[in-house]
């Protein structure tokens, strides 16, 4: 009854919004277990924690944020973002390949956004026709569904892996062909490297195959606009943070003709790379060989931001740009980021080893915050682990293991509990 009354105010899309975010409710369950005095393991949240369970904070960033002048805290940022931040966002996206790409005529534009989520929203709002489908892998970050649905977009998927646990290139190609038959625009989101929820990163060869799949599809369907979005939320914790820019550079050197109807865009998040999750900073960085294309995109994205959240946080943009304007503070940030990457590496290596020991068939996992156990009944696995006071997240098709949150000393216990759950 109460729901009926609420529904009289809510539109059809609002009525589809249900319940709590699974990840946050699993985290709340872990916290409740701790409050009751249990020796519980937190494999739930997507934030990087130190081995003592505290939030990992890059001290260089913290220092620059705290010492920012009052005007940089209080004032609005320019609507499209602070120019120094936008310039840095391009470098964070393309790395050392930036100069080379510029010299061979690749143009870029960046728009500041509230986190990587804001960048994904900018893409959803502008790069696909309402009512069309966006191509994702079948295992993807849950909020994608909501960002897309909110922009009137549906979803088509292809499998995360083929039978030999590699990129399912054939399914990607056929999905692109299929969508191009019925849509004037085809956009695909690919969270790489360091995929959430699996920790999977494509190899350089796989990246090259994906790039060719998109450029071939674009060449075969000249009247269709193709957008490949790389969600780089975790890229700075990967072994090849700028692998995509390197692959694109290599492909162009090897003679790839960039089709005019192919756009490549990156959703960048400062949340994780600079451990400022709450300051809400990110950027959508788009590249294309034609300057007039990127100029038009600059306008469209700026207007979209203005009409959605106004300007993004100035403080985050200012402090991050300031850190990287100076080689000493840039190096201090990098040292700390490397320490955090090492923390993740140690946990991942031990987890893979422990999974072997306890016969847990985890998915390939290479970089970043997570690992993944594919399973048709993830809830039963998560419940069984919870009975051992190991808290994980059941998602569509499997269980997400938040290596980012699990202290090194508790990793083996997680693998053991998973092994036991699988044997039940
Ligand atoms: C895959 C993926 N993309 C994008 C984001 C965006 O993060 P934020 O909006 O906090 O920067 C996240 C955060 O968890 C993520 O996991």
Key words describing this protein structure:
single chain, Aspartate Aminotransferase, domain 2, three-stranded antiparallel sheet, seven-stranded mixed sheet, globular, binds pyridoxal-5'-phosphate, 424 residues, Aspartate Aminotransferase, domain 1, alpha/beta
Largest sheet: 7 strands, mixed
CATH C-level name of the largest domain: Alpha Beta
Radius of gyration, CA atoms, in whole angstroms: 22 Å
Q: Work out the count of structural domains.
A: 2
Mean pLDDT across the residues is: 97
- The largest sheet has its strands arranged as 2-8-7-6-5-3-4
Shape assignment:
globular
The portion of residues assigned to helices is: 40-55%
Query: For this structure, what is the CATH homologous superfamily of the largest domain?
Result: Type I PLP-dependent aspartate aminotransferase-like (Major domain)
- Share of residues in strands: 5-15%
Query: Which structural category do the helix and sheet elements fall into?
Result: alpha/beta
Termini separation comes to 42 Å
Order of helices and strands: HHHEHHHHEHEHEHEHEHEHEHHHEHEEEH
Instruction: Report the strand count.
Output: 12
The low-confidence runs, each spanning 5 or more residues with pLDDT under 50, are none
Number of helices: 18
Small molecules bound = pyridoxal-5'-phosphate
| CATH architectural grouping of the largest domain | 3-Layer(aba) Sandwich
Briefly note the CATH topology name of the largest domain. Aspartate Aminotransferase, domain 2
